[in-house]
């Protein structure tokens, strides 16, 4: 600490003048930016592709910003600045709470040439969301329970204007080592003027460091969305002079300005590289993903189209058009014999109306399919068979029947093949079977020539009788429901 802990008393007045000028310039800049904020906000509210710093958190090149990642996003970042490597893991725990963990390596950090491996935990809380008039404001710390090597706290604001996202902030600790001014919190509570220098081994929160210290630094910058898709230009003024690294590691900062290009190669991968501090190259590569979404797209086939849900008024209008006078069906008394109904397709309304226990509202022939809208029978399958039997002898070219109740919100459709009933229909027309068994005491004759209950089933009981009935029905291409 001795080499960089001493302060030049003679430089204090000049630094104070620089600080006052910086504060005045920052205030004028913020006033000007707020004056244009309403117009800029009208240009669109689309989010920037948020950049991750060499530390792995959301920000500029090395300085943090007030921006947040999408809620729940996980990230993995690798950063390098002059052979100093950082591995960062980030998690957007809440829409307004960003957490990060990083593992850093600094060669030749200690006086004996020993390298440093340091763990640190960072947190950032958004205090105010961006509005047309006000910027987003966040507060955070980068080494809240670590050894304090990277200990720094900050208050930062960000505001977007068209394709440029501006950031400005105040930093304490490590972020207060360049162009600083006295800690304003020290005027309120004098203990804030002193910052603990005992870093320890980490693992505990040292409240003697949070926002403490004799100085406060200024940092800021901007991110510009270039006309080239997915390419951003990031420029920042850094308040970190790397005082601890320059002692033994030999890393020097010639100027506090960093510039980099950030390119989003894929939807979940970004690369940033640039020239830092006027002396070295640095960069970072980051991966991020949403754990609630699948990693790979579904390649089994195209996704189904979204359902088209009609309004109540549209459904009512459709029903009115369905039962329009030109489609109305003349209902006949059910139960008449098929042979008396005729086989002319023009008589289809009468044929459908004659079907027992089925109130046919309307019909439509689509290609080789007869579609019928019925008034909610309990057994749609039985009704479908009846219409299929009718179609097999009365309508040429129809190979299938579809029965549904358009008033039923479930939208169930029952399908039947007309050819399955052609043989039975021929027998029915030939022998003049009645349609409605409830209005006739005569049982339908067995196509095999034996009356039901005759010698073919005499003496059969239980399972044997059941098997016999199903065999006879199958021979007639009939299905037995029960």
If you had to describe this structure to a student in words, what would you say it looks like?
With 482 residues, this protein is of the alpha+beta class. It has helices at 2-5, 11-42, 243-248, 312-322, 348-353, 380-394, 422-431, 462-475, and strands spanning 74-81, 84-94, 97-106, 116-128, 136-141, 152-161, 164-173, 180-182, 215-225, 231-237, 257-266, 269-276, 280-289, 360-366, 369-374, 400-404, 413-417. The chain has a 12-stranded antiparallel barrel. Helix 6 links the parallel strand 15 (369-374) and strand 16 (400-404). Helix 6 crosses helix 7. The model is unreliable at 1-16, 32-46, 325-345 and 434-455 (pLDDT under 50).
